[in-house]
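User: quick one, sequence for these tokens?
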């Protein structure tokens, strides 16, 4: 069973690595071969084929639900139902909406199914199961495409969300009642439970954490709390997974068996152990439902169901077989689970525990618990680096104390409070407050550790080969005592700590125009130095591209400090991510045209120049004689980078006035092989005289997908006719290698890293 499950998983992974799905439905006919499964020699290859075909079938079904191209960003009238819990984002509410009917100007169109909507200043409090007629604007799933960045399009695909958009408040909103389906009722129950827990608990940091532990709703957990959890390696404590489901099932089994054994008549009808197993199945399923059946919850619930089925059928299963059945069950239910970090982290954590269990009985309890936590840390480290580029060295110590405290103190109090919600608000509130006080103490200790230690490290994400070899090294390291030369497994982990970027020589540079949506962020690297030119926008207090795009790229390239951060001007789409970069990295120098906005910065002025590894950098603007106000686009810092293999001109947001000033003062220096177009290709920039002076072979436009400004403007594209034109909305991050072995053509990261769920160029 274990080999068969691994083969099924391998088939799914092979499919998920494809840039496009195989054409034709014939692959689905492989299920006709199912009777051959009884022939033992064919089981493993058949399971691999079935995994591939099953993932292909499910992927094709999702891709069929597409937003028709003529409807993109049109005012559409839709009818449908709110799915799941809504998220309050302050300025707007975000929710999922299952469309049942869609039309444009009276004509009906096929709908894309599940969509994700923002509603600014909503007219009603949204609840799961509410049915509405709305006017919305939609666009296909889209995410920023960058090396080491979060694949938002993959997440949307896994969630079956086939379009995103917003509600048009100018149009009438019609409430059509509530959906009576089981799923809607379940989510209304979750929402009601969250509201009651919030009302009965005392305000404070732990309130959001208590709701997350109770029903798996984590939208109210603050960014500061997430940072503490990440820095201590305890984010899993907020995921209702094996730890919580197993604890609930164990308590339910013990309680059911105890109650049943008090009655002789009941004992004669059914053994107490079987009654306890049924009770555990019911309670664990209800708790998993309250958690929304997340992937870790599915895995844990399937394991509990199989274990309890063993009690009912009086059969026993090896723990590794239980894990294999659980993995197979999750993959059959949702083959796209492999796109989630939670799937890999949860299963590898349990597999690591099973690998460490043999030989544990000879040592003391504390030693065994410490060895187990250390082993889990080693086992998960390659995956944490692959998914998040970071790992907390304090995780084994913190989990050594946090897991028992959560399992034996916080969770029993919380379970009691949830049960008492059905009986008495007064008693439920008492237990909720006790759970909060115990959680406050744990979180205070973790926050103190973060403030007084620097045990959180960032490293580059390993590639697939590096991850595979690291996995083999982990298995070899964690083999039972007595296996010779286990230390050799550590050698296989060494590639995790080595930078993955290609070495640059003197006079060479790598230029990366990052995809930050409607904004600008670029990184210039030489052999020993690195600088960032702008950091993209801050979309909210919780989300900015400095943290989510710029920093991951720098860490992926192996940089732990910046020689220079240059912010061209003060518009949000250029400076929004700067503060996250400043807080996260050591920066030797900070230049900007708006020094009043950035503490410790110097003003960028024309004439400033430096040389790194025989690569020349020179600022061409703003000059001392320029009279434009500091807040204007035309005071943007303009930088020219010259290597032995080509030159690049970065122009910020200068417009006609700034271009005319540059033409008067520095025409001879303006020519460049690569141009980052002024002001994202707006019509107010890229004048014909400026375009003629630059004479670029390649023009790069940093723009957002379907941006409201319609950048780059068609008139501007026409002016650059003759130059190769690239934009980040179509190509994702654009990477230019100015080196001896490169042809100089910008590399489209969207094309390079494309998977079948990604939007095309």
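Assistant:
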């Amino acid at each position: 069973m274990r080999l068969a499950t691994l083969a099924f998983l391998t088939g799914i992974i092979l499919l998920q690595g494809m840039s496009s799905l195989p054409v034709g439905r014939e692959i689905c006919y492989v299920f006709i071969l199912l009777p051959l499964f009884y022939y033992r020699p064919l089981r493993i290859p058949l399971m691999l084929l079935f995994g591939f075909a099953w993932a292909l079938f499910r992927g094709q079904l999702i891709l069929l639900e597409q937003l028709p191209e003529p409807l993109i960003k049109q005012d559409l009238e839709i009818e449908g139902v709110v799915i799941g819990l809504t998220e309050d984002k302050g300025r707007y509410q975000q929710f999922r909406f299952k469309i049942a009917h869609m039309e444009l100007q009276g004509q009906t169109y096929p709908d894309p199914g599940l969509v994700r909507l923002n509603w600014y200043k909503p007219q009603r409090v949204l609840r799961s199961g509410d049915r509405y007629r709305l006017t919305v604007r939609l666009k296909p799933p889209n995410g920023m495409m960058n090396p080491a960045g979060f694949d938002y399009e993959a997440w949307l695909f896994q969630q079956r969300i086939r379009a995103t958009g917003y509600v048009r408040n100018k149009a009438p909103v019609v409430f059509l009642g509530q959906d009576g389906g089981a799923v809607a009722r379940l989510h209304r129950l979750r929402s009601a439970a969250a509201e009651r827990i919030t009302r009965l608990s005392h305000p404070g940091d732990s309130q959001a954490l208590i709701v997350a532990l109770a029903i798996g709703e984590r939208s109210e957990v603050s960014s500061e709390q997430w940072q503490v959890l990440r820095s201590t390696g305890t984010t899993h404590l907020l995921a209702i997974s094996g730890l919580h489901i197993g604890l609930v099932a164990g308590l339910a089994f013990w309680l059911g068996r105890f109650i049943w054994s008090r009655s002789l008549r009941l004992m004669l009808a059914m053994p107490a152990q079987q009654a306890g197993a049924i009770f555990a199945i019911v309670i664990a399923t209800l708790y998993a439902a309250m958690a929304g059946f997340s992937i870790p919850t599915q895995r844990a619930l399937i394991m509990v169901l199989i274990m309890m089925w063993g009690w009912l059928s009086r059969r026993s299963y090896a723990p590794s077989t239980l894990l294999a059945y659980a993995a197979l069950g999750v993959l059959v239910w949702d083959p796209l689970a492999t796109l989630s970090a939670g799937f890999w982290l949860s299963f590898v954590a349990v597999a690591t525990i099973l690998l460490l269990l043999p030989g544990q009985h000879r040592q003391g309890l504390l030693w065994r618990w410490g060895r187990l936590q250390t082993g889990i840390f080693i086992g998960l480290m390659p995956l944490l680096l692959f998914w998040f580029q970071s790992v907390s060295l304090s995780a084994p110590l913190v989990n050594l104390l946090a897991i028992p405290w959560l399992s034996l103190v916080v969770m029993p109090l919380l379970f009691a409070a949830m049960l008492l919600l059905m009986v008495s608000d007064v008693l439920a509130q008492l237990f909720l407050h006790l759970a909060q006080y115990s959680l406050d103490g744990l979180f205070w200790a973790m926050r103190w550790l973060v403030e007084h230690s620097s045990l959180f490290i960032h490293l580059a994400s390993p590639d697939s080969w590096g991850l595979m070899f690291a996995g083999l090294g982990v298995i070899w390291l964690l083999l039972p005592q007595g296996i010779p030369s286990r230390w050799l497994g550590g050698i296989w982990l060494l590639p995790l700590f080595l930078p993955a970027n290609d070495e640059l020589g003197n006079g060479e540079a790598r230029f990366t125009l990052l995809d930050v949506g409607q904004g600008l962020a670029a990184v210039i690297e030489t052999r020993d130095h690195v600088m960032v030119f702008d950091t993209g926008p801050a979309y909210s207090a919780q989300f900015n591209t400095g943290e989510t795009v710029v920093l991951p790229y720098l860490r992926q390239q192996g940089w732990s400090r910046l020689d220079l951060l240059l912010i061209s001007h003060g518009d949000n789409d250029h400076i929004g991510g700067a503060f996250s970069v400043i807080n996260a990295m050591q920066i030797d120098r900070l230049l900007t045209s708006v020094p009043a906005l950035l503490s410790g910065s110097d003003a960028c002025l024309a004439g400033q120049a430096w040389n790194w590894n025989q690569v020349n950098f020179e600022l061409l603007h703003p000059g001392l004689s320029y009279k434009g106000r500091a807040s204007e686009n035309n005071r943007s810092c303009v930088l020219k980078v010259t290597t032995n293999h080509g030159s690049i001109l970065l122009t910020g947001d200068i417009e006609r006035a700034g271009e005319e000033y540059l033409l008067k003062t520095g025409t001879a220096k303006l020519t460049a092989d690569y141009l980052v177009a002024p002001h994202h290709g707006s019509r107010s920039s890229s004048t014909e005289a400026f375009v003629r002076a630059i004479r670029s072979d390649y023009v790069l436009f940093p723009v957002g997908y379907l941006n409201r400004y319609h950048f780059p403007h068609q008139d501007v594209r026409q002016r650059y006719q003759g130059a190769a034109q690239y934009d980040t909305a179509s190509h994702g991050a654009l990477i230019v290698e100015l080196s001896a072995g490169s042809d100089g053509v910008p590399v489209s990261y969207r094309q390079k890293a494309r998977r079948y769920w990604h939007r095309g160029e």
